[in-house]
Amino acid sequence: MKFKYCLYSDIHGQIPQLEAVEAAVEKENADKIIVIGDLVGLGPEPAEIVQRMMDRPWIDVIIGNVDLWVTRKIWETGTPKSPHQEWMFRMMEMTRERLSDDQIEWLDKRPFSITYTPEINRNFHVFHGTPYDIGDSDAFPFRLTDDEIGEKLDDFDFDVGAHGHIHGPSVRHIPKKNGETQILVCAAAVGMSWDGDPRPSYAVVEYASEGAWDAGNGKWNCRVERVEFDSEEQATFNENSWIEHGERIGGMIRSGTFWNPEHMPH
Ligand SMILES: [Fe+2]
């Protein structure tokens, strides 16, 4: 038995990047497509993204921290941790104004995480930030070593984990105390990357009963892919749209780097 999952995340209201990733994923012939959160925020077309996912019920969608900021009105309850978050919270309020009540309700009901179990005791766990935090208080940023991430995953025994949130795709082999290796896949991001490569990304996780790969008794194979995308037109579209500081978003789309490198969000 073989099973193929395709995953992408952090679309952030950006339609053309999503279409570029969807076209590439289509060719993968996946058995299951999973979107790992942050459909909205930071982009000009949040309602179109949510509606597109509502119209594709065969895709599993997990909620991201920014989605939750919009649906739970973070600007009324949360205190921004930085000037960056202050701007984000204002943008979330403006994003919510563009969503219908049905779209807000649908988005708010997406689960925090999903576990796929293609065969007994072989688990693939999918979450936006970490398996214990949506991404507001903790995350798995690039700067952490595999050992440091291993400590954070001490209590979790899934074979493979997949997340989004940090806007840079990777496949990491995490050493565990019991001597086994856990694979951690970051699928992000579709909308804009922060790892220096402006191309949108997605991830592929394959399971095979008779596998000969690198985790979970050799039954799992994971890879990330970048998709060619002409960023200039979409960067300009963001700059000229309703979003506040569209030039910051446009700059991230062009460069594939965070707009303020001194203050990375995690
Ligand atoms: Fe996020």
Summarize the structure.
The protein is of the alpha/beta class and 266 residues long. The protein has helices at 15-26, 46-54, 65-71, 74-77, 83-97, 101-108, 146-152, 231-239, 246-255; strands at 2-8, 32-35, 60-61, 113-119, 122-127, 160-163, 170-175, 181-186, 201-208, 220-226. It contains nine helices and ten strands.
Can you put this structure into words, describing what you see?
By secondary structure, the protein is α/β, with parallel strands linked by helices. The protein has a single domain (2-259), classed as Purple Acid Phosphatase, chain A, domain 2 (4-Layer Sandwich). Helices cover 30% and strands 21% of the residues. The protein has 9 helices and 10 strands. It has helices at residues 15-26, 46-54, 65-71, 74-77, 83-97, 101-108, 146-152, 231-239, 246-255, and strands at residues 2-8, 32-35, 60-61, 113-119, 122-127, 160-163, 170-175, 181-186, 201-208, 220-226. The strands form 2 sheets. Strands 3-2-1-9-10 form a 5-stranded mixed beta sheet, with no helix packed on it. Strands 4-5-6-8-7 form a 5-stranded mixed beta sheet, with helices on one face. α1 links the parallel β1 (2-8) and β2. The longest helix is centred in the middle third of the chain and has 15 residues, at 83-97. The chain is globular, with a radius of gyration of 18 Å. The N and C termini lie far apart (39 Å). The model has no long low-confidence stretch (mean pLDDT 94). Bound molecules: fe (ii) ion.
